[in-house]
Design a protein that fits this description.
With 215 residues, the protein is mainly β. It folds into 2 domains: 63 residues, SH3 type barrels (Roll), CATH 2.30.30; 119 residues, Cathepsin D, subunit A, domain 1, CATH 2.40.70. It is 14% helix and 53% strand. Strand 13 and strand 14 form a beta hairpin. The protein is globular, with a radius of gyration of 22 Å. 21% of the residues are buried.
Length: 215
């Protein structure tokens, strides 16, 4: 092998090694909780809840015995203080552009647990919020949730806290989203509140609102 061929061969090996490193992600479990885990992802510690993602790593579940994570769609189980290395193909963040109506309100079509729903974006709402009438329409057994009450302008109404299996808006799909169900017919539209919005990045481009999924 000539000197030039040796140099070319060495450069090729370096390129392959660098490429593999760039696609790999290192994950270590630091601490475990119920449906939460403190992970060290590529040297950075991150507390993730069930269904949350960071740098291509999604926490599927966590107990005191271990955590299940998804890296590039591949599920792997990790025990406490154990480490794994996985590879994933970096993809563009999922986005959804929402345009205001004539009154300046931001309505968007989406899905709750796979069923079509119309949302009103409400950055002032703590949770995704809907009426009990709408909950029944999309098949949510809200009465199994945690019951409380709230004072409206005219009466005290029953409220249930539930977890939705998924919410999809445009190209964004989030799992295990907290929601409130209010007894009665109000609110008329499902409010897309901060239990969904805080798991996205909200960008403004003129009058257009763009939601971008956080990794």
């Amino acid at each position: 092998m000539t000197v030039f061929k040796k140099i070319a061969y060495s450069l090729c090996l370096i390129a392959i090694i660098l490429s593999a490193s760039a696609d790999g992600v290192n994950v270590k479990v630091i601490a475990l909780f119920s449906n939460k885990a403190l992970l060290k992802i590529d040297g950075e510690q991150k507390m993730l809840g069930k269904g949350e993602s960071f740098n291509g790593v999604e926490l599927i579940s966590a107990t005191g015995r271990g955590a299940v994570v998804s890296i590039g769609g591949v599920k792997q189980k990790i025990g406490l203080n154990q480490s794994i290395q996985g590879k994933f193909k970096a993809t563009e963040r999922s986005k959804s552009r929402i345009y205001p109506d004539s009154a300046g309100m931001y309505f968007v079509d989406g899905k709750i647990n796979g069923r079509s729903t119309r949302f009103l974006v409400d950055t002032g709402a703590t949770f995704v919020t809907m009426s009990s009438q709408h909950a029944r329409l999309v098949g949510i057994d809200y009465r199994t949730g945690r019951r409380s009450s709230a004072q409206t302008a005219t009466e005290i109404v029953a409220v249930w806290q539930v977890h939705l299996r998924s919410i999809t808006v445009g190209g964004i799909k989030l799992s295990n989203v907290k929601a409130s169900v209010i007894e009665g017919a109000q609110p008329y539209d499902v409010l897309l509140g901060n239990s969904f919005l805080k798991r996205t990045q909200i960008l403004r481009k003129g009058s257009v609102m763009e939601l971008q999924k956080r990794f």
